């Protein structure tokens, strides 16, 4: 079961937002068991890092099992041309081997201050050495796993920022309906928005 959570060596999405654009953190590893929620967290973090900049000038996105990670590092190294930063994203790093990830470990020893690196840790099991590299100063691990004690607050936060406004009784029904399958919330909110309209107040009926 997944969603933003803090933990040993972990950070919350709010922490990432605070450290990212304004702080000294330059590299993030986003981890979690639920691919859908992990992807949402990566998208949110990248959006916060891009801010009001022109995305096409700022973001370089890499994915694929046959990917040469050296190309990711090459994208991290140059200074930005049309903005004050680069945002480099590596998807599903868990599908890569330790040898494939080695260039990134070398990069993390001396990262570029104008580059924000976001690594999606999905796709498989990451080497412990790679995870530990993001626990050093200047980097952070954003853990998207949610414990059972955190489920209520996690759902409540997302409903508060959702496209429709649920009355308390309706919110309770939604939370009970989701159970541990939290990744269904996004699709459910889209359905409610289509049925009732953006900004509508929805009761339990």
Commentary on this structure:
- It is built from nine helices and eight strands.
- Helix 4 runs parallel beside helix 5.
- Helices cover 42% and strands 15% of the residues.
- The strands form two sheets. The chain has a six-stranded parallel sheet with strand order 1-6-2-5-4-3, sandwiched between helices.
- Helix 4 links the parallel strand 3 and strand 4.
- The N terminus is likely disordered.
- The longest helix is centred in the first third of the chain and has 16 residues.
Give the CA-based shape. elongated
Please state how the strands of the largest beta sheet are arranged side by side.
1-6-2-5-4-3
End-to-end C-alpha gap: 28 Å
Mean pLDDT: 84
Condensed summary:
The protein has 205 residues and is of the alpha/beta class. It is 42% helix and 15% strand. The protein has a 6-stranded parallel β-sheet, with helices on both faces.
Task: List strands and helices in order, with pairings.
Elements: E1 10-11, H1 13-19, E2 27-31, H2 35-50, H3 55-58, E3 59-62, H4 69-76, E4 86-90, H5 98-109, E5 115-120, H6 128-133, E6 139-143, H7 151-160, E7 165-166, H8 168-178, H9 185-196, E8 201-202
Parallel strand pairs: 1-6, 2-5, 2-6, 3-4, 4-5, 7-8
